[in-house]
Write a structure and sequence with these properties.
The structure holds two protein chains of two kinds. By secondary structure, chain A is an alpha+beta fold. Chain A has 25 helices and 22 strands. In chain A, the strands form five sheets. Chain A has a seven-stranded mixed β-sheet, sandwiched between helices. In chain A, helix 23 packs across helix 25. Chain B has a domain of 223 residues. The two termini of chain B are 25 Å apart. Chain B is an all-alpha fold. Classes of the chains: A alpha+beta, B mainly alpha.
Amino acid sequence: MTTASSIFSAKLVGPAIGNAFRKLNPRELVKNPVLFTTAVVALLLTVLLVAGGEKLAFGFQVQLIVWLWLTVLFGTFAEALAEGRGRAQAASLRAAKSELVARLPDGKTVPASQLKRGDIVVVGTGDLIPADGEVTEGVASVNEAAITGESAPVIREAGGDRSAVTAGTRVISDHIKMRVTQEPGQGFLDRMIALVEGAERQKTPNEIALTILLVGLTIIFLIAVATIPSFASYAGGHIPVALLAALLITLIPTTIAALLSAIGIAGMDRLVRFNVLAKSGRAVEAAGDVDVLLLDKTGTITIGDRQASEFRPVTGVEVSELADAALLASLADETPEGRSIVTLARERFGVKQAALPSGAEVIPFTAQTRISGVRAEGSLIQKGAVDSVFKANPGSGDSAQANELRRITDEIARGGMTPLAVARDGRILGAVALKDVIKAGVRERFSELRRMGIRTVMITGDNPLTAASIAAEAGVDDFLAEATPEDKLDLIRKEQQGGRLVAMCGDGTNDAPALAQADVGVAMNTGTQAAREAGNMVDLDSDPTKLIEIVGLGKQLLMTRGALTTFSVANDVAKYFAIIPAMFVVLYPGLAVLNIMGLSSPNSAILSAIIFNALIIPLLVPLALKGVKYRAIGAGPLLARNLAVYGLGGLIAPFIGIKLIDLAVAGLGLA
Amino acid sequence: MTAQGWTLILVFTVLIVALAKPMGMWLFALYEGRRTPFHAVLGPVERGFYKLAGIDPNAEQNWRRYALHMLLFQLAALLFTYAILRLQGVLPMNPRGLAGIGADGAMNTAISFTTNTNWQWYSGEVALSNLSQMVGLTIHNFLSAATGIAIAFAMFRGFARRQTSGIGNFWADMTRVTLYLLLPLCLVYAIFLIASGVPQTFASLVDATTLEGVKQHIVVGPVASQEAIKMLGTNGGGFFNANSAHPFENPTALTNLVQMLSIFSIGVGLSWCFGKAVGNPRQGWAILGAMMVLFLAGVSIVYWQEAAGNPMLHQLGLPGGNMEGKEVRFGLAASALFSVITTAASCGAVNAMHDSFTALGGLVPMFNIQLGEIVVGGVGAGIYGFLLFAVLAVFVAGLMVGRTPEYVGKKIESREVKLAVLAIAVLPLCILGFTALASVLPQGLAGPLNKGPHGFSEILYTFSSATGNNGSAFAGITSGTPFYNGLIGIAMWIGRFFMIVPVLAIAGSLAAKKYTPETSGSFPTTGPLWVGLLVSIILIVGGLTFLPSLALGPIADHLAMIHGQLF
């Protein structure tokens, strides 16, 4: 958790102050119209002061002008501070990048910055990978701590879904040949640096809309203030420009305008700290709007590995025979499922076989046959999905055993388990039940999501029966069984047609179209380059459960914006009550009754309002950077809560604040 | 304040809320283009119109086309009335031989009636012939009301439709609303008024001999027919200068109640119709709820202030409420209620003189207008104005539930915000801008009858009324000058069409959007929380802008009164 002290740590505040002044450059400032207006007004008053055109106390005018400039500076400071936090993170990334060199296949070395898309480079043990690319030859273990912070090495190999490598990561063992897939300066690392620094920051759609609203309010209040001199002249009086300026600046939404970009940068930054890299701010906003979450069963809902829990032989086959065959077929199977079959056979049935008999021929699992097995001691043992085993043994599907097996497998599936058929020489022996273990706490998570109004859909390759059972146990709202990438894509399109926003995560190349289609597509960092390109976020930890937190972070960003906007607008009521009586009391002394705060003098009232208006900005910086806490309590209660805190609070706080400042101002004799 | 007075306010509130659904169902049938019982008789008339004009009522128009046709129609109607007023002297049905109206006056009046304002710088019975009243003006009472409802329908379609560009057909909306709603209602209403004693004749003058034997000319005319649409269409332009305070316009307590109900009837019906159109009547009730909160708050303040009366008169031994400018027949409560209804609703009909209200009693009607007359509001204009604030409220607070703001299933994005702000900014721009002009220029300063803050209130009220298309006046002002006629004319035109065009653009933008189904994570726009939020946003964004001007007008006036100074 970020604390206020770390937000204002000296290491960040120092440069931020410098940058706050640098951001006064009109070309920079004009991007924030409200702050720009404030600066123009401050400049105008400064000029008027120098020209001596105002009939107001000199000291009072100076104070007013100083606070106006401070209002602008507090705004630019908030933005600079938020950027500084990102920049600190970028610095370590940049360090990793600067000394990269690439070794070409002919042995020559060139600086990494000269690599172009399509170049082939060789990376050996201990080398840093010079550019983003795809492994074309070999396999290596790679330490990706530089970008993920995770020190456990990951395997990168040619072909398949683990071929992507990232610049700045280090090969720990073996060597690979890789093809560069990015033009210089556009790699993953470059983009990450640019994003966390806020250099490439573009306003998101929601930010643009909010800015329009703030400009609109500024115009409306400008009209309200600009017409006052005429009204005053009707009443036979004159209102000094400085007072009008004070009223204008306190009324226009300076608070939210000053904090708006800081909120956006901090939102991105929170995601980066969470080891998720969003390719645009738009994606973060979309995360808050998500209505449907597509969650892969394996790894998200269940722990990745299924465990063998039962042997179910068909009539006429002893359990031990089935266990024996299953064990043989699994000895060479290094998957967790295979190992769990071996364990079950040994522990439950005392099968002693320790290793494959010599001369045994292992038949590996392929995506086409979807069975694996072993040919040993003159017989062929096969293990695989029921239909695949039938298919591999023509005719076996018509026997009485086959029908019995179907009944058994249905039972297994209904129990939420996955059946694996085992056959010896084409004879069906029975099935192994593989049990999915549902992760602790997911049920609560899903009911939390439901309260947030988000529907969860479990995506699984399992058959519908198994899927339904697991779905019910895990408490997801819906499931997509026997899902192919096309099914996923269709589901996303269908939901989007219904006006819902969909989030999903994926890692394989065949996930890429769905990742691209989804409103929030989180690619796993271990995934293929194609998947990482297609998604609009990359999870550096490759943890699919994080999708849920990503939604929370998106909501937090939007909520922070809404809360501070509401607060800013609600503040205006008190400011009116401070300034209007102070300004008009010379015209109609009776209007002093509007001074309900009992402020000590007109000048003090105006100064206090301006000081409050300025000070509230740095006071709210921690909130803007940390974000308003999101609670999964449903929109109604959430709104009630936030309206009470930021709406009502925004109404009351300035009454108290302005009064206290007035006491100080009067006490110090400042006005 | 009396129990009787509060009972009247309560009875009115209950009756008007009870009217919302039946009126809404009627409107909803027209919104959808469904058959009504009147189709049997009027169906051929409707089809005849379309045939004659070569219009396909089923041809959907996008917002640009809808807006263009609407504007061309308004322009044509405006010029038609302008011509009639100018040529009144040579046209028939002018038994008193009145002369034509001057250019600035005629233009002001033509704009006034086209924009549903019915600001009258003249006394109707003195300056206008029967032809001018019936053809030149009453026709607008129907058409401007129908236009308002048509725009509201178009905006409802924006919210209700999905991924389409069409927001209805302007001509079909106009024809249906006029034929199947306004005409039948007005017919029944006018007969009721005639039965209650309102004149309806082509004769112009009745000679009477008073008890003292003095000969008196009493102006009469086709009053009942104009009276009906004046109320239903929230037009407010009376046949007589005294408007609904005149016994020929508003003869009995019952007609007074019915008039008040009829001002609000279409407005409350449209709120319900909106809910129905977007598939959830509770959305409509929530809007009506927020309107009623603002309404009752207004009525309470006015009644309290008027009943409290003037402390300076109390010191002179004249106790009681403020009866200056009120019809003794109606008294305090009915006058307070009427004044709030007529200003809340952009009607502008009056049964008492707002200028004579206490300062704060007069502030409420003025504030109602400045908010944009969205508390029930003018027919159509009220609900579409209100929806602009709903869009803003959703945008400001909607983010607080952690989603991009949505309202009734439509995402509110930069385009909608831009247009809503544009439409809402028109009010302060015109009201405050023109008041500022008038309060420094000599031509403007010549207008107000009274001095000090009260005179300022008169100017402020004038431009509020014009921009808000209300049409009522703080009677003290002399506005029939070229300066005021011109400025008020511009204010009325801008206040009407610089609001309508953005509204239609929003409708077009919303209609093109997908529908986002409501979930438990969606921003709730039906409960009391939403009602409270709406009221706050309306008061803060819509209202606070006017606080400086109100402080220098009615508030200063009121405080001066307390300190024993009157203007």
